[in-house]
Amino acid sequence: LAATREQRSLIRDGDGGPSAAQIGSLRVLAASPAPTEIALWLAALLRFALVAAAPMAAMGVLYLLMRQNAQRARFAEAEVVRAETHFRIAADGAKVGVLEWRASADEVQLSEQAARLLGAPRDTMALRDFLELIVNEDRFAVDEEFRRAKTSGLLDARFRVVRGNGMAWIEARGAAVEDSSGRVQTRLFATVVDTTQRYEAEARVSRLEHQLRAALENFSGPFALWDSRRRLLLWNQSFAEAFKLGPELLRPRASYEAIAAAAAANIRREKHDPTNPDVRIIELTNGDWLHVVERRAADGGIITVGVDISPLKKKEEELARNERRLSDALSRAESQEYRIKALAREAHEERAKAEEASRAKSTFLANMSHELRTPLNAVIGFSEIMAKELFGPIGNPQYKQYSTDIFDSGNHLLELINDILDMAKIEAGKLTLSPRPLDPSVAIEQAVRLTKRKAEEKGLSVVVDAEELPEIEADHRAVKQILLNLLSNAVKFTDTGAIMVHARGNTAGLTLRVVDTGCGIPPEHLPRLARPFEQVEQELTRTNAGTGLGLALTKSLAEMHGGKLAIQSEVGRGTIVTITLPRTFGGHREPEATAAE
After folding, report:
1. CA-CA distances (angstroms) from residue 436 to 261, 422, 588, 593?
2. 115 close to 129: Cβ distance less than 8 angstroms
3. 437-441 long-range contacts, Cβ below 8 Å, gap at least 24?
4. Which listed residue, 131, 217, 328, 370, has the most CB atoms within 10 A of its CB?
């Protein structure tokens, strides 16, 4: 109706000629003949169409704009996906995993590399399942870090996981995606890096630093380290104590000059080594001495090391005093030099005389062998004939007893003479041995047979314990003489009990041991027994005459074979004498001269 009224208004204004109408911002011009009813209705319809076309056009433009924005959004999303894909590829190539957290679904998506680093069985999981991968000690802190990331938009978590090859340290760092308004979205991307090697390296560095500091503190002398700008880096307690430097001065980055100035107050004197300008000898005010060396490090810094040489200085002073005393002693010695030389000459002459006398004695005794033995053998032989009445009865029985006594005394005297002559030969170097293969059992049997009668006369038993013995290289007479001497001594000094002869052999040689149950020997007298003409003075030995040469001869004969003699004894319990002989003769060989001579 409004349009009709407006049309009517236009018609009235137009009067059949050209007319104009204003509809909003649209101006309609019309030139027509005088309108009819139909024409007026058509004009109204045209004006209505023109008024309705403006909103339709606006809606079309808006549709085009929305379509263009949607296309741009799809393009941007494709770019994001493409960039994300490229990032994941690059991260996998660098062995860096990618973690995506969708807070709305509370789930975590892992790249293949991230799943491998975390030891995860799958690449997408709920956050609670992701937290199960983390060791118990770190799980709560990581959960809290994810919760904070909802508001802060940043994730910075360090935690440990258990993998097949042990414990691994992981670092996850990232940020949430923001929209154009800057508001934090519910998606968060983070890199996942295995920091195990870095952590272990840091731990090693920490341990080394701790060990270095411990070593510095255990170092007894002063130590300090300065950087290339002569600023203090490290020092030990000895450095502070030696130069009496307090904590207000000793601090990191303190200047070398300030420290040196403060230390100078505690130095009494110092001198430089003329051959090495880096070395100083310092005497402190407390009397201690330091040997200080300062060297340039490779980075331009300075290393200061001090060694306490106070004991050395004291020894130098003591040495100087000793040198003075020695000089005085040398002066006195020079004044007595003539007397000392005279005494040396006298001692040399006396020793020469003693050696000559000893040689003369030994030569005399050796040369008297036949002269002493020949008449003695005649006495022994004739007394034996008379005692056994080989040429008929003597008549008076008393004469027979005297003949027996003469025979026994002659044999005893012959034994003494043989011992003396053998000892003289040994001392004169004229007794030599002729080693031959020897069955030790034969020598043992012979020695036991020769002493068994005397043992039985005293009511003693002689027991032999000899297993199968190896053959040795030795002088037969000397080995038999060794056993005879030991058995004779055992019989002589044993009144009750038994005498044991033990013999054992091995690859090294032969061990002979004679054990008696006699009176025993005090331990302080044992070293004397193997010396010529030595006997222990006690009540029992006074009733057993002898020269005291038995053990001395035995020891000498054993040593001439390369063996040795050992004695063990306890007063009241008995004595054990042990002889060891090598399997191969170890002495001087002279086959042409034997002990039988």
Report:
1. 89, 20, 13, 13
2. no
3. 437/471, 437/472, 437/473, 438/471, 438/472, 438/473, 438/474, 438/475, 438/476, 438/479, 439/469, 439/471, 440/466, 440/469, 440/471, 440/472, 440/479, 440/503, 440/505, 440/510, 440/512, 441/466, 441/469, 441/503
4. 131
Phi then psi for residue 302, to 5 deg, are: -125, 135
Nearest to 40 by CA among 80, 89, 78, 5: 5
The answer to whether 366 and 424 are in contact (CB under 8 A) is yes
CATH number at 94-201 = 3.30.450.20
- Please give the backbone phi and psi of residue 474, each rounded to the nearest 5 degrees, phi first: -160, 170
Contact 228, 299 (CB under 8 A): yes
> Token pair for residue 169?
């340290």
Residue 455: other Cβ atoms inside 10 A: 19
Q: Are 300 and 229 in contact (CB under 8 A)?
A: no
Homologous superfamily (CATH) for 433-582: Histidine kinase-like ATPase, C-terminal domain (3.30.565.10)
Question: What per-residue string of b and e applies to 135-147 under the rule 16 or more CB within 10 Å gives b?
Answer: eeebeeebbebbe
CA distance between the termini of the chain: 178
* Residue 480 host element (H or E): helix 476-492
- Count Cβ atoms within 10 A of the Cβ of residue 423 and give its class: 0-12 exposed, 13-18 middle, 19 or more buried: buried
Q: Distance (Å, rounded) from C-alpha 571 to C-alpha 475?
A: 34
List Cα–Cα distances, 72 to 64, 83, 187, 231, in angstroms.
12, 16, 21, 61
Q: Which mean pLDDT values do the consecutive 10-residue runs of the chain (597 residues) have?
A: 42 45 43 55 56 50 59 58 55 73 88 88 84 93 92 91 86 81 72 90 81 74 89 88 88 91 89 84 88 87 88 85 86 82 88 82 68 78 81 78 80 75 73 88 91 90 90 91 91 91 92 92 77 52 54 88 91 92 76 41
If you count them, how many residues does the chain have? 597
